[in-house]
């Protein structure tokens, strides 16, 4: 992802979190409102993990332009959302205009309450 897309996605996520209210946010998920304004602009790296494969160095050296490396995730399964390498939830890939985006399924690992303290 380029920096511009990261910034756009970060702004969308923060804006979405700002729009949460007590009626729609369950289980403390409205903690974004309680974060100090200064903390809301701290950049983080949001990644979407498709899967992984454990291969030998010899297999790695044999990979070429038409190679296919099977991953440990099944097709159609939700992908793992990570923030700075830590899993926070699951999502699926969507097309947002001319770019890829993510549709959040759940955010079980996002603990904003811990950040606000």
From TrEMBL:
Protein's membrane topology: Peripheral membrane protein
InterPro entries documented for this protein: FliN-like_C, FliN/MopA/SpaO, FliN_T3SS_HrcQb, SpoA-like_sf
Location of the Flagellar motor switch protein FliN-like C-terminal domain: 39-106
Residue runs in coiled coils: none
Compartment(s) of residence: Cell membrane
Signal sequence bounds: none
Keywords of the record: Cell membrane, Cell projection, Chemotaxis, Cilium, Flagellar rotation, Flagellum, Membrane
Keyword Transferase: no
Source domain of life: Bacteria
Family recorded in the similarity comment: Belongs to the FliN/MopA/SpaO family.
Matching PANTHER family: FLAGELLAR MOTOR SWITCH PROTEIN FLIN, PTHR43484
Full protein name: Flagellar motor switch protein FliN
């Amino acid at each position: 992802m380029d920096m511009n897309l990261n910034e756009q996605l970060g702004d969308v996520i923060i804006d979405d979190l700002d729009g949460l209210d007590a009626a729609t946010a369950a289980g403390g998920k409205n903690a974004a409102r309680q974060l100090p304004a200064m903390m809301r602009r701290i950049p983080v790296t949001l990644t979407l993990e498709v899967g992984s494969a454990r291969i030998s160095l010899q297999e790695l050296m044999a990979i070429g332009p038409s190679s296919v490396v099977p991953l440990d995730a099944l097709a159609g399964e939700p992908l793992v959302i990570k923030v700075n390498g830590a899993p926070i939830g699951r999502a699926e890939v969507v097309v947002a205009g001319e770019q890829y985006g993510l549709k959040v399924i759940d955010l079980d690992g996002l603990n904003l309450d811990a950040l606000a303290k």
